[in-house]
Amino acid sequence: MWKVLCGIALLWPGVSLADEADDLLSEMASSLKSRHYSGLVTYGYGDQWHSAKIQQGPANQQMSLRIDYLTGERRSQIRSGNEVVCIHQGVHLPGMTPDILKPFNSYFPVHSDTFEQYYTVQRADRLDQRIAGRDSAALRITPTTPDRYGYRLWLDSETALPLKADIINSKNDVLQRFQFAAIDVSAAPAPERFQQGQTGHTVQLHRHLTDSEQIRALESEWYPDWLPLGFTLQRYSLSRDAQVSVKSERMKFSDGLASFTFFVDAVSEQHSGNLSARMSRQWGPVSATVEDVVHSDGKLRLTVVGELPPATLERILLSALPDQSPAMTESLGTRPILSQR
């Protein structure tokens, strides 16, 4: 399909390469929601590489996706609509069943105002290559601000399914990659492949933020005073530790491609004597910034984790500290006004 689009772009003066890139993303978004396929994919960064089998097909009157992770502990994940079922033995650990294709999955925000305002999309025909035995069309997705990462994306020429994607920094270093080694789009997987096993447990995905959650988040004294442009609150939760009577808060933000979560947790008594100074660490595209603070509620640990540069996460954390000077707060920005629905 993209070859047809490319020919039209060359022969028809009213069609630009930017239009071609937008059309390809639209076709990708449609294919991710409607096409069946099966494939083997490698994913990772640095010396941390893994493989998985991915299958998508109709089941229970909707399109479902199954990922069987082929390295490490035996585990699988089944996604149907807004639910995900994790299948494995033992306790579920963070990062155990990653969304390998993220952000180029069925939730990709094509044509969203945020995406179009804070990222530019360009056709990169010089990067076209053959992947998994299939021709592809390459795109560049470049952030308009330096506080987030960019992407390179290769779409299948027939179906526009993503065959390969890189997350890259401002120096074009590859921070993370997924790439199909083989893919079959000719037959749908059997519906039985998407049935939940006895060891599966269900969690909810992409639940809409409620008005009450948004109000509580904005009323929180820990809500960041600065956010990268285009990032909005996606989820908020509040709990209380019965032992230390301190609230624990979680705030998740996203611009549609990248996301980060801000945690506020109590420091246990056995560790309260050794408060940690601010420190940051990075794993591929994921970074974390942590700082312990003394507060009227006790000793707290603030953590920001997400697919953003360390400097961005540190600025977010700094803006949430209650003892920022007025000049610092003014330079970082102000809290957003509660949107009207």
Automatic annotation (TrEMBL):
The keyword Signal applies. It comes from the Bacteria. This is MucB/RseB C-terminal domain-containing protein. Residues 1-18 form the signal peptide. InterPro entries: MucB/RseB_C, MucB/RseB_C_sf, MucB/RseB_N, MucB_RseB. Keywords: Periplasm, Signal. Belongs to the RseB family. Residues 21-196 form the MucB/RseB N-terminal domain. It is found in: Periplasm. Gene3D superfamilies: Lipoprotein localisation LolA/LolB/LppX, MucB/RseB, C-terminal domain. Residues 219-317 form the MucB/RseB C-terminal domain. It comes from Thalassolituus maritimus.
